[in-house]
Amino acid sequence: MAVVREDLALTQTQIGNTIIASVAITVIVRLVIGVLCDRLGPRKTYSGLLLLGSIPVMGIGLADSFETFLMARLAIGAIGASFVITQYHTSIMFAPNVVGTANATSAGWGNLGGGTTQIVMPLIFAGMLMLGVNEALGWRLAMVVPGVVLFFTGIAYWLFTQDAPDGNFDELRARGELPPASGEHGALQSFIVAAKDIRVWALFVVYGICFGVELTINNIAAIYFFDNFELTLATAGMIAGLFGLMNIFARTLGGMFSDLFAKQGGLKGRVRWLLVALICEGIALVAFSQMHVLSLAIGIMLVFSLFVQMAEGATYGVVPFINKKALGAVAGIVGAGGNVGAVSAAFLFRSESLTYQQGLLYLGLAVLALASCVLLVRFSDAQEAEEAMAYREAVGDDTGAGALSLR
Questions:
Q1: What's the CATH code of the domain at 59?
Q2: 124 CB burial (10 A radius; 0-12, 13-18, 19+)
Q3: What is the count of structural domains for the chain?
Q4: pTM of the model
Q5: Does 187 map to a domain?
Q6: 167 phi and psi, to 5 degrees?
Q7: Which residues, 6 or more positions from 328, have their beta carbon under 8 angstroms from its beta carbon?
Q8: DSSP state of 406
Q9: Is residue 403 very low, low, confident or very high in pLDDT (cuts 50, 70, 90)?
Q10: Range of 6's domain?
Q11: pLDDT > 70: what percent of the chain?
Q12: Contact status, residue 334 vs residue 207, Cβ threshold 8 Å
């Protein structure tokens, strides 16, 4: 972003606006994508999104002004809705005793792309410079690489995946094993059912203060270290990349702990763990905002990264149990909350009168305050008993029959 900032002469406010735009569009797309998953299935939805998304990624190199760069970032932001499909797909593929770990691992390794990009893209850019390309053309050519990868990933998803353990949605509906996507099982109805549940909106806020915060840090980390600690662009990018690279294991840990807490405390145990992770995240973020020594800043950033990603894993350890018949809509709404949180947080970092350190402090305090929304996520005794039985059956059945039912 530092190179693009210089090439297109972007101000801090304009950079903030591009961040807000790219994240805001995902809010709308995630809501739509969740409903499409319920209707079309994850295979068709995912393949289409990746293939279409590869176009603006490769095309952003044509931007020659703030306005054209903004439009490209807006289109690229829609790809962020892929997260909802991933969570939907793993939720119906894995049994209750491991669904938290499965959701967290798939999402964590997906988010790993953010950390990998922070490290790899500067290296690709440096490679372009070594070939004799100037900076203005180098960053544009570098963007072709992720676009091509995205395109072939979309093709691979279509060829090598299926919607559910026992077949694609079209096949299941033809066999009468899945209700038709109409009437009470239609896309609009599933969204309405999900939107009426206060627990969905509580998790919407919760995901905003964990994944929304992670998105914000991914967007500002490199510039933050570059400006505040007088580092080179490559060094700042490497340090910022460490934040995302924690996804290798951190989000998985959040899901694993969710499954472990469920073993002892059922669905209430999953909710309690989510609250603990959020509180630790908020404390770590406040501490990070006060660091002025590089080594301490890096250390606290890693602690903060651990808890923010564990909170994300814990959130989607709860989501599959809110409403199984409207799973796509629930996952979409909660996922959109992450982007609403990122948009809200981005306003702290677009103001010329507010330093990034001040913005981080206020963001940490907001996390601590809004963590109380977890208390609204409750389950009836009947649902607790039903899920406890499903958990026991899943533990005793390794054939995959315990995977989440959509009926």
A1: 1.20.1250.20
A2: middle
A3: 1
A4: 0.81
A5: no
A6: 135, 180
A7: 34, 35, 36, 37, 38, 39, 84, 88, 190
A8: -
A9: low
A10: 2-163+194-395
A11: 95
A12: yes
